Amino acid sequence: MKHLFPYSLLALIWFVMFPLPGFAQSESVNILLQSPNTRYANIGICIKDLTTGRVIESYRPQNAIPPASVMKVLTTATALEVLGADTCLLTVLEYSGKIEKGCLIGNLYIHGYGDPTLGGLNQGQAFLKTWVQAVQNAGIKEISGGVVADMSYFDGDALNPAWLWEDAGNYYAPGIFSIAYMDNTMNVVLNSSEVGSVAQVKYTVPEVPGIEFENHIRCTQTNEDCAYIHGMPYNNRRYLVGAIPSNEGQFGVKGDLPNPGLLLAQHFTIRLRTAGIAVRQEAAYHTERDLVPRTPIYTHRSMPLAGIIEQTNMHSVNLYAETLYRLLGARLSTPCSLHNAELMVRNYWRNRGISLLGATIKDGCGLAPQNGISAQTLVEILTYMYASSNKDAFYASLPVSGKTGTLRSFLAKTELEGKVHAKSGTIGGTKNYAGYIELPNGDKWVFAIMVNSGVGKARDLQNTIQKYLLDVYSRNR
Description:
The chain has about 475 residues and is α/β, with parallel strands linked by helices. It has helices at about 5-15, 30-35, 70-85, 125-135, 260-275, 305-315, 320-330, 340-350, 375-385, 390-395, 460-475, and strands at about 40-50, 55-60, 90-95, 100, 105, 110, 140-145, 145-150, 185-190, 200-205, 210-215, 220, 225-230, 235-245, 250-255, 280, 285, 295-305, 420-425, 430-440, 445-450. The strands form five sheets. Strands 2-1-21-20-19 form a five-stranded antiparallel beta sheet, sandwiched between helices. It has a five-stranded mixed beta sheet with strand order 17-8-6-3-18. A four-stranded mixed beta sheet has the order 4-5-7-16, with helices on one face. It is globular and about 80 Å long.
């Protein structure tokens, strides 16, 4: 026992001089550990010099923390590597039966292979004119059957079971199908009147045939949109709950399209009839591939994958990220499944020396609260991508601090404005960032800062993280 004190003192001195991985290594981290917003939060930090690998900051870097939309770093990096930056996603027009004297005796099919951009804000409806022309070029003047949306490339599990009920049916948590259309989003236009009244539904954009609403949205004294839309894929019934500001006149609340493939088939049918092509039956859809032989007449190609990934990360588009995740699963088998998507992601990075054993992967966009990934793992993936042949496409997809996308307000009017390229992630109590920091000498840091179960508004958490990151930068640049 007489040697216990000297050896304990020696151990204490060693620990102070050479702290173990996972403990704060600078004064900067105390900004997070002592702030009222983050004092009791689950925090993980890893910041490294990208060139030398030197650790700048490390605090519990192996903790698995819900990433929120930072999950898109994992999804988009994997998609670029597996699918390729120049890959275009396909939608094929096909017909069954035969064409006799201008009459298609059979059905016209829209066979979707996972393009999430059809009819979206960046593309519009111009492609439908091209599709009509393709039908005319095939010599079809009449269709004895109808237009059928073939959504069999993905399995029927359109709603991720790990998502919360409060999210399902809202625009940011739409059903995921192998045919997407108009960003899988509809705008429900309400009439906002006096306090306490029910906000009456006026119409939807786009118009959705057969849509039904059970409406409980109240007009209140709130000054925010506190309304939610709940519903399931393929089902036209939607439940409207929550509150909107009173006396606003028309007020829009966004929700998901119950069946985007069917709506596309309906719109295409209208275009064909307007062009003088008789379509005898009404539009339909199916989710299982039939064995009827088909003849392709036109292949629609999306923008290159690099462009889709730029939109995904720049504006944090859940629809795009979740579709890319399913497409990764399709590389193992079709119809694809969520299980195969996870397996594909894990296998890809394991084969490149990056283990995801400590990660929980439930989706591709970060909406599932069960997701968990460590700051260290994110830094390893970001480091790998900076040496990848897809480096430029990946780097360009990340928002820039104080300038673009979801980082437009982050670090604005500070020393780090324009110097951070990163993905952010925000869910109630969670604020995360992962990406790259440019130094004045041209070097770069790679970093991940993850804060879960923080207190206060997202803006408060952002301000605390900004203060921390600026302190690290000033001490170590």
